[in-house]
Amino acid sequence: MAVASLLCRQSAAKLLGATFDSGLGCVVVTVQGDGVTAYNLEQRQLASYPLGSRPNVEFATASAQLSSAGADKAIMASIVHDKAASTYTLCHHASGAPTRAIADAPARVLLPGPAHSCHILHRTPASNPTGAPAASAAHPQPLTAVVLADGRVGVSASNPEPGGTALTLLPGASAAPAPRHLLAASSHETLVVTSQASAGSPVTLRVLQLSRADASGLAQVKAASLPCPGGPGAGAAHAVPTGLTLSAGYALLQWSNGHATAVHGIQGGASSPLRPVVFPLADAVGANGASSSAPAAPAPVPGTASGRKRKPAAAADNGAPASRPRVLCAAVDERQFLLLDLQTSAAQSHVCFSLHDAQFGVPLASGSVEVDAPLLSLEAAECAVVAAGPEATVVRLGGALHVLHVQSQPVSLLSLVARLSVSAAAATAAAGGALGAGQQQHQQSRGAAAGAACGRGVAAALAELPAPVALDPTLLASSSASGAAASAASDDMADVVLQLVPDASVSRLDDICNSLVAALSAVQPYGAAPPQALLDSAVSYISGRRQHAMPVPPQLPSLTARGLAAARQWGQLASLLAALPAGGLSGCSEVLVAAAAAAQYGLLPRLSTCLDEVEPGALVAALQLLLAPTTRLNQAARQQHYAALRASAESRVAEAEALAAAVAPTPLLPPRGRGGSRGAAAASDPAAALALAQCAAAVVDGFSYREVLLHPLLAVPVDGPAVQVALRRLSGPAADALLGYLAKWAAKYAGGAIGEAAAGVVLPQELLFPYYHQVGGW
């Protein structure tokens, strides 16, 4: 249900920030004094741009990037601060341009003052439906919006050509005095900016969208004033906004006092007002959120990191409460938001999570996921949500960026139940008006105290919200109301008689894991095949744990894979690999050699993805086996593998042809290899489908039965010097064949058969191929 992976790790002092490129589905990381690097969600580096070596030049904000679906170029926007000249400059850079420093980009726009953030806004085809008025149509080209430190917003064309376009400041956006707390978030054509003059004061939220009706191309469509949530006891007098995320349906604003405000009605014109809803995050964590399903953290031991004194948060938040809750929240989609608890299981390096309905705050699912980060030693200010969406949530923990994949949950029925419960509570409160004056006053005082303690004073506001989804009438239809009531009563009675789960049953899974590891490690001699019953138990155990998003010790999958290869149980090995994430195998590179020796060519792509690191000696040994000439012994297996690759590539070409001819294509297979969300875009975008077809055709065209076997192995990240030493053991004929194979890839890249479009195309796993820099490295 949930998986976490480390995207990259930098120095916490130099990691300036990160943004998300929705077109390419990648994270753009800005490192102070170094440059900008783009990673896809599978931890693969796509591009890198240096800042430059000029003295007194540094990044002012995190850079932003926009890649159009199917395009072979991306636009990068960076704000550079020249400390010697005390100037701030907006620089535009194209990925397809000759490599040069960002500070020396030809497209430069001088800014009137310090900047807070920059955003590239663009419209998608879905955001301009047929029949929309011309005033709301898409702007001819993307625009770069710069949020200045004083709260003003400037707009410039996202043009990487020399000269650039002057910055246009939006009218009526000047802020005097400058806001003390400023946040901004963007999604496609929408930019949301929040500003607060001082801690505890109301926050002004502005919604800006692209529009041809305005000369600058960007106009403010609506605004609202949001009071600080919580009563005096909840720290409302010192609350400041700490995080802002944006989805297609609402904006989610997090506060320093453990609350969050979901502002619905972001999309639409000025006629649809903004509807803020407040959720107490601390109650969600303590009552029915993520922490309730996570193991309890032990008490801190004196002298450990958890027992050290922390600096007051007020020093960093300028008036924020001294103990900021260590929770994060992010808008996942138009109906749900994600809550992350960084405190409860920090000692076990676990982040507890829970999904909530964005209309009512109803918990939909909860659990925990392990991360590679020192959670106990991190301050609240060092943790933030970088980007969030249906694909994944990117979280910054100190100097590391982690990608969290949490499966979304259906919310229709739960939203109905939440609305009925809120309505019932409102009806009960209304019925209390028939009580006596003294008794009513006494109950009201008790209710107010309970609401202040539990943070559930938002029930009245929730009851006024419209239904978030269109309900199916058949769900509400019932032949007998009494029968439904009796069924509900029987369910309640069944819940009452449930017995508690013994502690021994909870620890039984860990005992099974330890026994499996011990049994697999005890197999003698080394490399012998373990008993089949033991292998069956290990594969079943790992698949079950992975299916329920439970952690698996890294040595168990590696020992199991090694045992399956020794027993030549290739079908079970394929099932094991399907249950493991990328990089889930470590220390068993010999499995790759065994699969190549047994002519199990279909396992090579998945093994190349699952192996955390392939030893150079094992990689060269596998290459030696695959570079052997095709003979009668291996011809059938190689021909069958080539035919499968050819069929997969031809299906992509047929889909692109059908889409170009405006014929409904066959749905694309779900991407299992590189990339992130581009596979869904290719299903409806002819340009993306064409780029996908070009890369798929390049994988098989011009290559022999033997050469297509090398694609996944050369796509594995390697240590260049170590592989260079190991390649000395490659035979002369095999080395000549490898050079001929690399020459074919070099010709394809140089001739423009695929070009830079390969960096953003999602291919099925069987069609993996090496990128241009990997071909040059080999």
UniProtKB/TrEMBL annotation:
Q: Which GO terms describe its cellular component?
A: nucleolus
**Which stretches does the entry tag as region Disordered?**
289-321
Q: Which residues cross the membrane?
A: none
One GO biological process term: maturation of SSU-rRNA
Question: Which is one GO molecular function term here?
Answer: RNA binding
Listed Low complexity bias regions: 289-306
Source domain of life: Eukaryota
Q: Return the PANTHER family for the record.
A: NUCLEOLAR PROTEIN 11 (PTHR15633:SF2)
Q: What is the name listed in the Swiss-Prot or TrEMBL entry for this protein?
A: Uncharacterized protein
**Whose protein is this, by species?**
Tetrabaena socialis
